[in-house]
């Protein structure tokens, strides 16, 4: 078996690096590689990358596209086979393999840091004459130069060494922060009677015959149904508290350290804060603008939040007449009651129409009809029996491949996310992408269907963005971070379209979701949106304030409690430490505002589909050509303007919020 895996691995290596110029790279990833294989692959590719990089640094003679940019591109090609490391770390069933992939990620990050601190490289790049460059090449060159300067390449050696050391610490701390959350699964033993209200299939899956108690975990598939359906206030409270204690106390120290190191690095580079440093490269531009944007959203929301909160409280008081406020562990439960009673909408009635296999096929079919592609199963090696693999064709030509690891299991990444596994380059290699999600194999909630389509939107974006590119750094989801969610957020609108739903939403008897039920869902859709957005504003402010202020001047816990009071409709829950399990405080760091910002863009983009038809092939094609296909080859603001025929504005989003 070991020998076989190594052979597969070698084949991957060979095809990645020894193919003739005319041969298109279409291989899958090294799905069955062992921990040792990963270590070997990592060392081999990094050593190749280093060799190429040294050649760029030591280059003499005229500096131009061929001698500098194309030579540097070889470094990126050498690193391509290591791209799946991050996905492997998230999904591989074998912890040894996950750890090996993680070690590799750390090494890649170290190597990246050394690139961005190389003065010989910076000098060679700066010497490239950009006057006659094609637009995508010029964009690539200038972004690279800017990022090198942002790493401190033009500083003295002592400063550069200091920055390099800080970046290493930041990566390590970030990994530690995430690991502390992922591996901290808490459990709660509860009596069978406490499960009253939960769906039958939920109980059947967990309770063994003859047993009087059941052990629930803080993992989402256990947690969310409890918060939504369990009649027991105590059960919801207990599990919610446990979930918000994850990562604590370890992450209290890790996060403070992480924020401090980032602040220190930003100061050395001449910025006031890490947020200022971080937002310089985004559409939004600065923490002050982000703060102002969040304030405008907050103002637009005020009345709607108040109305929703009063309504929820009135319902809670029917259960507990002494209640003064709806708490966090009660919100989903009360929401569901109101949906059932006032919108006659029962989540259980809805979910019968969303069997996983039908939903998956529906998502694929929608993508096919919107964008004129064909998606079919792809026979290839995978790392677990749950994994599904597909390939995408256009006019019979293979244009991309992807994996979906869509069901929960121990040790696996617990959210839903997209990973790029290989960037597409015109005529050279097709894009390879993947999703890791955690859906039941049976019935899904409508919200999960929305999540599925959202993540699939990222996947499609990366595939379409990898068709015309000439540079790896321009391919895939390489655009500004505060734009990257917009296409996926826009695509969510399609699960709120009956024409789309009726193509796949069928129950076991083969009955299509009734129009009447769908109308009810749409009516109930906006309910809870104001409070939900307010919670998002709290998260965004937490991320912004942690990173725009000097960490020497505040403590994590009190600042979080204060921001929660200011923005969240729900009071702080004693004994919880949300910041210790809010993983985005590493990945998004200061930039969680992006969720709201890109939603504002998505709403603006969607206005054109709304006017001209959700199934309008022509509009969908224009959208694909102007926005998705552009990848990271130009500023996002330009793509949006190309599609809309005018610059982006947030009016459509603000109007939506005011009308809630
Ligand atoms: Zn997303």
Automatic annotation (TrEMBL):
SUPFAM superfamilies: Metalloproteases ('zincins'), catalytic domain (SSF55486). Binds 1 zinc ion. It comes from the Bacteria. InterPro entries: MetalloPept_cat_dom_sf, Neurolysin/TOP_dom2, Neurolysin/TOP_N, Pept_M3A_M3B, Pept_M3A_M3B_dom. GO terms for molecular function: kinase activity; metal ion binding; metalloendopeptidase activity. GO terms for biological process: peptide metabolic process; proteolysis. Pfam families: Peptidase_M3. Keywords: Hydrolase, Kinase, Metal-binding, Metalloprotease, Protease, Signal, Transferase, Zinc. Its cofactor is Zn(2+). Residues 249-657 form the Peptidase M3A/M3B catalytic domain. Residues 1-21 form the signal peptide. Belongs to the peptidase M3 family. This is Tetraacyldisaccharide 4'-kinase.
